[in-house]
Amino acid sequence: MRRLSRIVLLLCVALPAAAAEWSTVVSPRGQLFPSLILATANMPVPERTTSTVIGDPSGLIGVRVRAERDNQPVRVAVKLPGWLRDTSMDVRLAKAGKWYSLYPVMEWEFALLRDFDQSAPETIRFELQLDDQAIERKVERVRLRSINEAPYFVKDAKHPTNLAWMFAAYVDEDHPQVRRILSDALKSGAVKRFDGYQSRDPKQAMKQVYAIWRTLRGRGIRYSSITRTGNGQSDVLSQNVRFIDESLGNAEANCVDGTVLLAAALRKIDLNPALVMVPGHMFLAFELSPGGERSYLETTLIGNGLPAKGVESDEAAFANFRRASERGHAQFQKSRAHFGDQAEPEYQIIDIGAARDMGVVPIGARR
User: Domain residues for 287?
Assistant: First the structure.
């Protein structure tokens, strides 16, 4: 009898602990968008949080784990060499049998992410330890996207995610080039000063927008239709967006690039811009008075009819601006019934001020 007890004891000691129930999380859909990481880096903690989500509430990388007992200690570590300093978190899982989502606060190499302009595969290593059990490891192959790719919608039958506010991260009102544009606009004499809405005159607001429009025409910016990304994930809708220095340096912009550029300049002079997205296209909206009526601009017309040589006349520049305004209004009227319908994610109005209030910050100038 004593011998049988010893055998049972030896078997109990020799048997390894059962593997923990856990899975890895990389959002959205196993991809990492540097633009999304940078845009949400300083996003405030939401007022409502759930007790089963622990750590960074805006986290994109983490694990889901099932607690084996009450108040169980767990350690999670995440490794992505070159892009992320080794990151870990130690927490306790309150209730046995419950699933918890754990998101460590990632120590990103933000400067490297900002400069990454070519998508590539990467490997993330996860480590999990419950109590004093052996460390369990999992490896996930992910795709690191270009900084120029803006994800704006994640399809899901039950819980679709609207990320249209991401475009506001490319509106950089503090970019050095924006200050130069405004300085050139003042030198041109098209407007005496930029005073936002201080005059309380919608005509003055429109005049300031025209001064910026004309200055950009003087820089020879032309329309480019390049919008495609290398994103093969049909469930994650994304759009290629040039940074302000890229648009100005190449003297070309697609509909999103031009709209983002103009929105940055308007935001800098305290006007309230918005980006209007419709299927395959984007144009600009701006308020003529705070919280009041909006006007619209078809930004792809900014380079139309530029003279091959010489300086453009005031009449020609203003005629181009008026056509862009008329086209923008027509685009909005054609699409207005679709805005606000969650079933049509390609119809969005992205108010830049509202995005800033939400915590969406500009990605910033690249080095």
Answer: 164-358
Q: How far is CA 8 from the centre of its chain?
A: 58
Q: In Å, how far are 110, 155, 307 from 42, measured between CA atoms?
A: 12, 25, 45
Least Cα distance to 22 among 126, 178, 154 occurs for 126
DSSP state of 202: H
Q: What is the CATH number of the domain that holds 79?
A: 2.60.40.10
* 344 and 200 belong to one structural domain: yes
Beta bridge partners of 247: none
Residue 152 lies in a domain: no
The average confidence (pLDDT) of the chain is: 89
Whether pLDDT at 6 is above 70: no
Domain co-membership, 54 together with 176: no
Return the bridge partners of 139, or none.
Answer: 125
Same domain (yes/no): 251, 351: yes
Residue 136 structure tokens: 């369990």
Of all residues in the chain, the percent with pLDDT exceeding 90 is: 72
| Same structural domain, 223 and 298 | yes
- Rounded to whole angstroms, how far apart are CA atoms 79 and 125? 5
The answer to the question of residue 1 being in a domain is no
- State pLDDT tens for residues 259-311: 999 999 999 999 999 999 999 899 999 999 999 999 999 999 988 887 877 67
pLDDT in the model for residue 311: 79
Residue 84 pLDDT class (50, 70, 90 cuts) = very high
By CB neighbour count within 10 A (0-12 exposed, 13-18 middle, 19+ buried), where does 9 fall? exposed
Q: Is the pLDDT of residue 150 over 60?
A: yes
Number of domains making up the chain:
2
The end-to-end CA distance of the chain, in Å, is: 76
CATH of residue 207 = 3.10.620
- Cβ contact 75:89 at 8 Å: yes
Q: Assign 151 a pLDDT band (cuts: 50, 70, 90).
A: very high
Domain boundary among 122, 147, 172: 147
Residue appearing with tokens 């005629």:
319
Same domain, 95 and 169: no
pTM tops 0.70, yes or no: yes
- The answer to the question of residue 7 being in a domain is no
What is the length of the chain? 367
